[in-house]
Amino acid sequence: MAFSGQSVHIPCAFSLVEILSVLYSKHLHFNPADYKDPKRDYLVLSKGHGVMALYPILQKIGWIKDEHLEQYFKDGSLLRGLCESDIPGLEVTSGSLGHGLPIATGIALGLKRRNLSNKVFCIVGDGEMNEGTMWESCLFAGHHKLDNLTIIVDANEFQAMGRTEHVIHLEPLTEKFQSFGFLAKRVEGHDINALDSAFSEMSKVSHQPKALIASTTKGKGISFMEGENQWHYTRLNEETLERALKELYS
Amino acid sequence: MRATFANWVADTAKRDENFLVLSGDHGYALFDEIRRVRPGQFLNVGVAEQMMVGLAAGLSRQGFRPLVYGLAAFVPIRVLEQIKLDVCYSKLPVLFVGDGAGLVYSTLGASHQSAEDVACLRPLPDLRIYSPCDSEELKACLAESREYSGPSYLRMGKGDLSPVHDSPIKGTKAHWIFKGRHPERPALIATGSMVSPLLSLSKELDISLLSVPRLKPFPEEFFSLVQGRESLLVVEEHSRYGGLASAILDAHVEKQIPLPKMEVFCLEDRFSEKCGSYQYALSEHHLSLEILSERIRQTLRRSSL
C-alpha cells in the first residue's frame, strides 16, 4: 500500500510491527464482531505516523476491507496517512503529536471512575516525547495512579529531522518515567518473547501506570531503510519495492 | 453572573453524575459549592490546559459530560488545536467556558486578556458559541449546551454588571432588550458584557437595543428583527475581526442579503498599553461607557432620521 499509494512515513511503521503483533495476538482484548465493544481494551496510537503498521491488522480482523488497503491515498479513499478516529479500530485522531496520550489518559481515568477493568495501551514515539502534553499526562497518570494505562515508547531513536539524541536528548527515559511514578522498563522492541513477557509482568502490577520503552529500529527489516532518516520522507519506486520485498520475505 | 454559574455547576453535578468539571488550577472560589456537594465531580488537573482538553476528550469518549473551565486567554486560545482535533473533529459533547473574557483582567495585562477567543473558534465545525450578557442569558445558554450532542464554547465576560433581564428567558435567540418608538432608526446590536451598560443609554436616546447571546450558529431571526433599520450600531468587547460584527456580515453574505449600513464599536486592533481599572482598559479602545456613549450620540446626530 505504501507503493501503490506513494506514501511516506514507511520506516516509522516498521519499528512498530512486533509491538502491535504481540499486543493484538496476546494482550489486547477485542471483539472481532464489534470494534466498539464496551468490554474492549483500548489501543491508542499516539504516534499517528506509524498507522500503516496498523491498517493490515484492522483488515485481518475484518474491520476494514482489502479494497481500503488497495485504494490507499486514491481520491475519495478511506485511509489516510495518519491515525483518524473515524476508521473502525482506531480510537483517536493523532499525528499532530502530543494528542493521543492525553486522550488515552482521559479514557483510562474514565474507566477507573466507572470501576471497569478494561486496559488502555498507548503507543508513543520517542520524538513525540518532546511535547509538553506528554509529560503533563505522565504527571497526571502518576498522580492518579492510573494502573490501567500502559505507555509503549517506540524508541527508534529518530525523529523527523534527525537522531533524537541530537535533536533533544531524552535519556535516561526509563528513569524519567520512574520518577513520574511509573513502573518502567526497557525491552528489545523487536523481540516478540521479550515484549510478551514484559506485558505479562507489567499487567500484574497495580497502583501505578506503566511505561515500556521498546528499543526499536526505524525501518526494521529493510536494510537500506534502517537508520537512514531520509526514508521518513522517501517514496518507494519499483526497484526499491522489489528490494524491500525480497528482504522481508527472505 | 458568576454566582449563577457556580450554582448551575453544582446543581448540574447533583443531577448528572456524568457531569465533570475540569479546571487547570483556576476558579479558586468559583467551585466551592460543587466541591462541597459533589467533590468527586470536580477535578483540578493541574496547570496543564492542553492535557486537560485531551483528558476531557477521553472522558467524553467514556460517556462523561465534561465542562472545561479556564480563563478565556487560555481556554480556548492556548488550547485551540486540542479543541479542534481532540473534541470538534469527533463532535464530542464538551462544554468549554472561557472566563474573564475581554479586558476583565485589566490590571494583569495582555497575558490574561482576550480579544480574539470568539474569532479563533468560529471556523471550527460543529462548535456552538455563546456570549451571554447576564444570569438569565447564561442559564439559557448553559441549558442549550447541555441539550446539544456536540461541543460548545461559552464566553463569560465581566460578571458583576447590572442584570438585563428580570425574568427567565427561553432559548438563546437574538432578542430586543429595549424597543424604541421608531422602528426605522439605527439600532444597537450588542453581545455579552456590552449589553448591560447600553441599557440606560438606549432608553435615554429612545434607540432599540438587541442582545445576541448565541454567535454560532448565527441566529436566523436576526434578519427579520433588524429589517428596515437605517443602520446597525454593533457593540462588542472583542476584536473587530471574527466576533459579532464579522458574524453579522458573514451571515448576510451567506444568505445573499444586501449588507446593512453598519458601524462597529469594539476592541481596537492593538494590545492594551497601560495598567488600570476595567473602565480605563476599555477607554484605551474608546469603549468605556463614557466614551462609547458619546460616540453613539455622535453617530445618531449624523443619522439622517
Secondary structure blueprint with pairings:
The complex is a heterodimer of chains A (250) and B (305).
Chain A: H1 11-14, H2 17-27, E1 42-45, H3 55-61, H4 66-70, H5 100-113, E2 120-125, H6 132-143, E3 149-155, E4 158-159, E5 162-163, H7 164-167, H8 173-179, E6 183-188, H9 192-203, E7 210-215, H10 238-249
Parallel strand pairs in A: 1-2, 2-3, 3-7, 6-7
Antiparallel strand pairs in A: 4-5
Helix pairs in contact in A: 2-9, 5-6
Chain B: H1 2-15, E1 19-23, H2 32-37, E2 42-44, H3 49-61, E3 65-71, H4 80-87, E4 95-99, H5 117-121, E5 128-130, H6 135-147, E6 152-155, E7 175-178, E8 187-190, H7 195-205, E9 209-211, E10 214-216, H8 222-226, E11 232-239, H9 244-255, E12 262-267, H10 278-284, H11 289-302
Parallel strand pairs in B: 1-2, 1-3, 3-4, 4-6, 5-6, 8-9, 8-11, 11-12
Antiparallel strand pairs in B: 5-10, 7-9
In short:
Chain A is α/β, with parallel strands linked by helices. Helix content of chain A is 35%, strand content 13%.
